[in-house]
Amino acid sequence: MCGRARLSSDVSEIKLVFSIPPHRPVPNFPPSWNVAPTDQLPVVRYDRKAGERSLDLLRWGLVPYWAKDLNVGFANINAKAEGVENRPAFRAAFQRRRCIVPVDSFYEWKKIGTSKQPYAIALADRSLMALAGLWENWRSPAGEWVRSFAIVTTTPNELCAELHNRMPVVLKPETWSVCLGKTLRMTLLAEIHEAGVDLALYLAVGVFRDTDAARSSNAFKPGGDVDAVTQDVVALNQDVSEVDADAQSHTAIVRYVDILLSRQPL
Fold first, then answer.
1. pLDDT at 178
2. Catalytic residue among 2, 99, 160, 179
3. How many other β-carbons are positioned within 10 Å of the β-carbon of residue 195?
4. Which pLDDT band, with edges at 50, 70 and 90, does 239 fall under?
5. Bridge partners for 6 per DSSP
6. What is the pLDDT confidence band of residue 184, given thresholds at 50, 70 and 90?
7. pTM, whole model, 2 decimals?
8. Is 160 marked active-site?
9. Are 218 and 31 in contact (CB under 8 A)?
Protein backbone atom coordinates (compact mmCIF):
# COMPACT_ATOMS: atom_id res chain seq x y z
CA MET A 1 0.00 0.00 0.00
CA CYS A 2 1.01 3.62 -0.40
CA GLY A 3 -1.02 6.01 1.71
CA ARG A 4 1.43 8.73 2.74
CA ALA A 5 4.31 10.38 0.93
CA ARG A 6 6.79 13.24 1.02
CA LEU A 7 7.39 15.67 -1.82
CA SER A 8 9.66 18.46 -0.68
CA SER A 9 11.64 18.90 -3.91
CA ASP A 10 11.18 22.16 -5.78
CA VAL A 11 8.66 21.93 -8.62
CA SER A 12 11.17 23.48 -11.01
CA GLU A 13 13.56 20.62 -10.22
CA ILE A 14 10.78 18.10 -10.91
CA LYS A 15 10.27 19.67 -14.34
CA LEU A 16 13.95 19.28 -15.15
CA VAL A 17 14.20 15.68 -13.92
CA PHE A 18 11.16 14.54 -15.89
CA SER A 19 11.97 16.55 -19.05
CA ILE A 20 8.96 18.84 -18.88
CA PRO A 21 9.40 21.59 -21.52
CA PRO A 22 10.24 25.01 -19.98
CA HIS A 23 7.16 26.67 -21.50
CA ARG A 24 4.76 24.32 -19.69
CA PRO A 25 3.10 25.89 -16.60
CA VAL A 26 4.71 25.34 -13.20
CA PRO A 27 2.13 24.03 -10.68
CA ASN A 28 1.81 25.94 -7.42
CA PHE A 29 2.75 23.20 -4.98
CA PRO A 30 4.37 23.99 -1.61
CA PRO A 31 6.77 21.37 -0.20
CA SER A 32 4.96 18.76 1.89
CA TRP A 33 6.33 16.12 4.25
CA ASN A 34 2.91 14.58 4.77
CA VAL A 35 1.02 14.17 1.50
CA ALA A 36 -2.23 12.29 2.13
CA PRO A 37 -5.14 10.95 0.05
CA THR A 38 -7.39 13.72 -1.35
CA ASP A 39 -4.38 16.07 -1.39
CA GLN A 40 -3.13 17.37 -4.72
CA LEU A 41 0.23 16.33 -6.12
CA PRO A 42 2.17 17.34 -9.25
CA VAL A 43 1.77 14.44 -11.68
CA VAL A 44 3.65 13.82 -14.94
CA ARG A 45 1.38 13.09 -17.93
CA TYR A 46 1.84 12.89 -21.68
CA ASP A 47 0.00 15.54 -23.69
CA ARG A 48 -0.76 13.68 -26.91
CA LYS A 49 -1.97 16.77 -28.79
CA ALA A 50 1.19 18.74 -28.03
CA GLY A 51 3.43 15.67 -28.20
CA GLU A 52 5.17 16.51 -24.91
CA ARG A 53 5.04 15.89 -21.19
CA SER A 54 3.19 18.09 -18.74
CA LEU A 55 3.22 18.53 -14.97
CA ASP A 56 -0.21 19.11 -13.48
CA LEU A 57 -1.84 19.06 -10.05
CA LEU A 58 -4.15 16.08 -9.61
CA ARG A 59 -6.18 14.87 -6.63
CA TRP A 60 -4.95 11.68 -4.94
CA GLY A 61 -7.70 9.06 -5.10
CA LEU A 62 -8.90 8.09 -8.58
CA VAL A 63 -12.54 8.89 -9.34
CA PRO A 64 -13.74 6.89 -12.38
CA TYR A 65 -15.48 8.93 -15.07
CA TRP A 66 -18.72 7.01 -14.45
CA ALA A 67 -18.76 7.57 -10.66
CA LYS A 68 -21.68 9.42 -9.11
CA ASP A 69 -19.77 10.69 -6.07
CA LEU A 70 -16.32 12.20 -5.52
CA ASN A 71 -15.93 10.09 -2.38
CA VAL A 72 -15.36 7.01 -4.54
CA GLY A 73 -11.77 8.22 -4.72
CA PHE A 74 -11.13 7.22 -1.09
CA ALA A 75 -11.28 3.55 -2.14
CA ASN A 76 -9.00 4.12 -5.14
CA ILE A 77 -5.81 5.69 -3.80
CA ASN A 78 -3.96 2.55 -4.96
CA ALA A 79 -4.47 0.24 -7.94
CA LYS A 80 -3.19 -3.34 -7.77
CA ALA A 81 -1.00 -4.08 -10.80
CA GLU A 82 -2.31 -7.63 -10.88
CA GLY A 83 -5.54 -7.52 -12.89
CA VAL A 84 -5.58 -3.73 -13.22
CA GLU A 85 -6.59 -4.09 -16.88
CA ASN A 86 -9.85 -5.77 -15.85
CA ARG A 87 -10.98 -3.70 -12.88
CA PRO A 88 -13.86 -1.35 -13.81
CA ALA A 89 -12.40 1.57 -11.85
CA PHE A 90 -9.01 1.38 -13.57
CA ARG A 91 -9.18 -0.42 -16.93
CA ALA A 92 -9.93 2.67 -19.05
CA ALA A 93 -7.22 4.69 -17.31
CA PHE A 94 -4.74 1.83 -17.68
CA GLN A 95 -5.29 1.73 -21.43
CA ARG A 96 -5.21 5.46 -22.11
CA ARG A 97 -4.33 7.57 -19.06
CA ARG A 98 -1.17 6.40 -17.36
CA CYS A 99 1.04 8.81 -15.45
CA ILE A 100 4.10 9.14 -13.22
CA VAL A 101 3.82 10.36 -9.63
CA PRO A 102 7.06 12.03 -8.39
CA VAL A 103 7.79 11.74 -4.66
CA ASP A 104 10.89 11.99 -2.50
CA SER A 105 9.80 9.05 -0.35
CA PHE A 106 6.75 7.15 0.81
CA TYR A 107 5.92 6.02 4.33
CA GLU A 108 4.95 2.76 5.98
CA TRP A 109 4.33 2.00 9.64
CA LYS A 110 5.52 -0.95 11.72
CA LYS A 111 3.92 -1.89 15.02
CA ILE A 112 6.33 -1.74 17.97
CA GLY A 113 4.59 -2.72 21.18
CA THR A 114 1.55 -0.50 21.51
CA SER A 115 2.93 2.12 19.14
CA LYS A 116 3.47 2.43 15.40
CA GLN A 117 6.95 3.28 14.12
CA PRO A 118 7.06 5.21 10.84
CA TYR A 119 9.64 4.44 8.16
CA ALA A 120 10.51 6.41 5.05
CA ILE A 121 11.35 4.42 1.91
CA ALA A 122 13.41 6.38 -0.60
CA LEU A 123 15.84 5.81 -3.44
CA ALA A 124 19.27 4.89 -2.15
CA ASP A 125 20.79 7.95 -3.83
CA ARG A 126 18.04 10.24 -2.44
CA SER A 127 16.96 11.31 -5.94
CA LEU A 128 13.34 11.82 -6.95
CA MET A 129 11.30 8.63 -7.03
CA ALA A 130 8.95 7.94 -9.97
CA LEU A 131 5.84 5.91 -9.06
CA ALA A 132 3.61 4.35 -11.69
CA GLY A 133 0.14 5.87 -11.70
CA LEU A 134 -3.20 6.08 -13.48
CA TRP A 135 -5.28 9.22 -13.88
CA GLU A 136 -8.88 10.00 -14.76
CA ASN A 137 -11.28 12.86 -15.54
CA TRP A 138 -14.53 13.12 -13.61
CA ARG A 139 -17.34 15.63 -13.96
CA SER A 140 -19.42 16.46 -10.89
CA PRO A 141 -23.21 16.87 -11.05
CA ALA A 142 -22.56 20.63 -10.84
CA GLY A 143 -20.40 20.48 -13.97
CA GLU A 144 -17.01 20.83 -12.24
CA TRP A 145 -14.15 18.79 -13.71
CA VAL A 146 -11.85 16.92 -11.30
CA ARG A 147 -8.64 15.20 -12.35
CA SER A 148 -7.53 12.45 -10.01
CA PHE A 149 -4.97 9.65 -9.84
CA ALA A 150 -4.11 6.34 -8.20
CA ILE A 151 -0.68 4.86 -7.46
CA VAL A 152 -0.09 1.39 -8.88
CA THR A 153 1.09 -1.17 -6.31
CA THR A 154 2.62 -4.62 -6.51
CA THR A 155 4.05 -7.34 -4.27
CA PRO A 156 6.84 -5.98 -2.07
CA ASN A 157 10.54 -6.61 -2.39
CA GLU A 158 12.47 -7.98 0.58
CA LEU A 159 13.06 -4.53 2.01
CA CYS A 160 9.43 -3.37 1.98
CA ALA A 161 8.00 -6.77 2.93
CA GLU A 162 9.19 -6.13 6.48
CA LEU A 163 6.63 -3.33 6.69
CA HIS A 164 3.70 -4.16 4.38
CA ASN A 165 2.40 -6.73 1.91
CA ARG A 166 2.20 -4.16 -0.91
CA MET A 167 4.49 -1.46 -2.32
CA PRO A 168 4.30 1.09 -5.16
CA VAL A 169 5.67 0.22 -8.60
CA VAL A 170 8.90 2.26 -8.73
CA LEU A 171 10.00 3.16 -12.26
CA LYS A 172 13.57 3.46 -13.54
CA PRO A 173 14.17 6.46 -15.85
CA GLU A 174 14.47 4.27 -18.96
CA THR A 175 10.91 3.01 -18.39
CA TRP A 176 9.24 6.43 -18.02
CA SER A 177 8.47 6.83 -21.73
CA VAL A 178 7.11 3.30 -21.90
CA CYS A 179 4.81 3.93 -18.96
CA LEU A 180 3.51 7.16 -20.51
CA GLY A 181 3.27 5.66 -24.03
CA LYS A 182 0.25 4.80 -26.12
CA THR A 183 0.42 1.04 -25.58
CA LEU A 184 1.44 -1.08 -22.64
CA ARG A 185 1.36 -4.86 -22.43
CA MET A 186 -0.61 -6.14 -19.46
CA THR A 187 2.48 -7.83 -18.04
CA LEU A 188 4.79 -4.86 -18.49
CA LEU A 189 4.14 -3.28 -15.10
CA ALA A 190 5.42 -6.44 -13.43
CA GLU A 191 8.44 -6.50 -15.75
CA ILE A 192 9.19 -2.84 -15.01
CA HIS A 193 8.98 -3.52 -11.30
CA GLU A 194 11.24 -6.57 -11.48
CA ALA A 195 13.85 -4.55 -13.37
CA GLY A 196 13.90 -2.50 -10.22
CA VAL A 197 15.80 0.29 -8.53
CA ASP A 198 17.90 0.52 -5.38
CA LEU A 199 15.77 1.50 -2.40
CA ALA A 200 16.82 2.51 1.09
CA LEU A 201 14.88 2.33 4.34
CA TYR A 202 15.19 5.20 6.82
CA LEU A 203 13.89 5.36 10.36
CA ALA A 204 11.64 8.39 10.75
CA VAL A 205 11.98 9.86 14.23
CA GLY A 206 10.54 13.35 14.04
CA VAL A 207 6.80 12.87 14.43
CA PHE A 208 4.53 15.89 14.58
CA ARG A 209 0.85 16.61 14.31
CA ASP A 210 -0.45 17.49 10.86
CA THR A 211 0.22 21.24 10.93
CA ASP A 212 1.54 23.81 8.48
CA ALA A 213 4.82 23.88 10.43
CA ALA A 214 5.15 20.11 10.17
CA ARG A 215 4.51 20.16 6.44
CA SER A 216 7.11 22.84 5.79
CA SER A 217 9.97 21.68 8.05
CA ASN A 218 13.09 20.15 6.54
CA ALA A 219 15.42 19.17 9.39
CA PHE A 220 17.54 16.04 9.11
CA LYS A 221 19.23 14.42 12.08
CA PRO A 222 22.53 12.95 10.85
CA GLY A 223 24.33 9.85 12.09
CA GLY A 224 23.91 7.98 15.35
CA ASP A 225 23.43 4.50 16.72
CA VAL A 226 20.44 2.40 15.63
CA ASP A 227 19.78 1.09 19.17
CA ALA A 228 19.90 4.61 20.58
CA VAL A 229 17.52 5.74 17.89
CA THR A 230 15.09 2.97 18.82
CA GLN A 231 15.16 4.18 22.43
CA ASP A 232 14.46 7.71 21.22
CA VAL A 233 11.48 6.42 19.24
CA VAL A 234 10.04 4.65 22.30
CA ALA A 235 10.44 7.81 24.36
CA LEU A 236 8.91 9.88 21.56
CA ASN A 237 5.90 7.60 21.33
CA GLN A 238 5.43 7.95 25.09
CA ASP A 239 5.58 11.72 24.75
CA VAL A 240 2.70 11.67 22.27
CA SER A 241 0.76 8.92 24.03
CA GLU A 242 -2.19 11.25 24.45
CA VAL A 243 -2.74 11.06 20.70
CA ASP A 244 -4.83 8.03 19.70
CA ALA A 245 -3.38 5.37 17.40
CA ASP A 246 -5.26 6.53 14.31
CA ALA A 247 -4.09 10.11 14.80
CA GLN A 248 -0.51 8.94 15.30
CA SER A 249 -0.60 7.04 12.04
CA HIS A 250 -1.67 10.25 10.32
CA THR A 251 0.97 12.54 11.77
CA ALA A 252 3.49 14.41 9.69
CA ILE A 253 7.01 13.02 9.54
CA VAL A 254 9.52 15.75 9.07
CA ARG A 255 12.93 14.51 10.25
CA TYR A 256 14.87 11.35 9.55
CA VAL A 257 17.78 9.47 11.02
CA ASP A 258 20.36 9.50 8.29
CA ILE A 259 21.31 5.87 8.91
CA LEU A 260 21.00 3.37 6.10
CA LEU A 261 19.29 0.45 7.80
CA SER A 262 19.29 -1.77 4.71
CA ARG A 263 19.51 -1.66 0.95
CA GLN A 264 17.90 -4.23 -1.30
CA PRO A 265 17.39 -4.07 -5.09
CA LEU A 266 13.85 -4.59 -6.30
1. 83
2. 2
3. 14
4. very low
5. 105
6. low
7. 0.76
8. no
9. yes
